[in-house]
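Q: Start with the shorter request: fold the first protein.
A: Done. Sequence, then structure:
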Amino acid sequence: MRLLAEADVGGDARAVARWGNVAYVAAASQGLLLLDLSRIDSPQFIGRFDTPGSSVDVAVKAKYAFVADGPGGLLALDVSDPAAPRKVGQLPLEGAQSLALADERLFVAGEEGQLWAVDVLEPSRPRLIDEWSGPETLRALAVAHERLVLAAGESGVILLDITSEGGFRERGRYDTPGFAQDIALSTRFAFVADGDGGLLVLDLQ
């Protein structure tokens, strides 16, 4: 493994997503930065959107980027012109910090244990479908096959079913030995970064 390129974002790069030849970097107080990856060894800044809060996560689908902006809530941006991203929608989900996108549904975790399901079929009019309150340490979330799995810090891992209406139904919990920090999913298994507990593999059946 070797370093091929780097770009100074002028702040704290918190999350990154890629769509096509563009990288989208949630850069805290610097907002959302867009970089051209046409030359992978020389990424070039091509656009920026100055968000009202602190950009901490980003999810992208086609010409739209969704930004978890902390105190700025959830933002929907039209990025069809990467040089001039523009806001087309917003929801006041204060403390938004983590995102998981599944088709036309966006799941948003808040910094105080809130979990929101948002319909983004029309990004210019994001619509809140459901809300769930959990532990105050929701660190990450992942979605696959109508399941939403949460890395919940000292509360371990929480498994939720996604209802046909797009809401939540709690299905189970697993108290991990460490501090659940991050999570990835396959069809049946969850892979958990558990701090001092190491890497855990959980069977979701």
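Q: Next, the second protein, separately.
A: Sequence, then structure:
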Amino acid sequence: MKEIERHIKLLGLIPVLDEESGKTIYRRKTSLPIPSPEELEHRISDHLAATRENANITKEEMAELLGLSQQFYGRAERREAHLRVTRLILMIEILGPEMFDVLAEVAPQIFGTDEAEARARGKLVSTVMRLPAKNVHEILTYVSLIADLVQRERDEADHAVVRDVKELMDKNGLTSEDVKGLILAEKAKRGPRKPRKPKASETES
């Protein structure tokens, strides 16, 4: 198996035809509609204009803030030109949390595999970006604890998968390359992990 094929499987990517280049590209598997790169450009242009207007900034003012000519910036909002990533980052600095709302609206598929998850994660990011620094540190502590518990569950499950696969290897004389493929297959067969039941010591008294 080629290394690129392993990446595709591990990351859960699916092949999609890029109409602009005529080549196959790979995107995250999702139940949401997957916009083409061209459609993403159109969405970005539309939302840039709306976000700028909501901030009461004119096209001329935004062009000057970004160090661009008024003609070029106007073309970007009309979908006739593309802003470089560095300019988009500058816009995020200028417009603040509103630009994260744009990202969640333009590309919800990067926030979740279905509409409910994407909406929840997008709202979470947007909310955190608007919080004072003190609250952000408090939330980070809490989220870090949750992440640590999730990672422990994953480690325990991975150890169980490896043990089962090694048993299969010994019985069938499989190579290490075969084992790697079996590990991926075994993980997929087990499906989503069930939520861990809290211990008595972890529940509120």
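Q: Describe the second briefly.
A: The longest strand covers residues 13-17. The radius of gyration is 23 Å.
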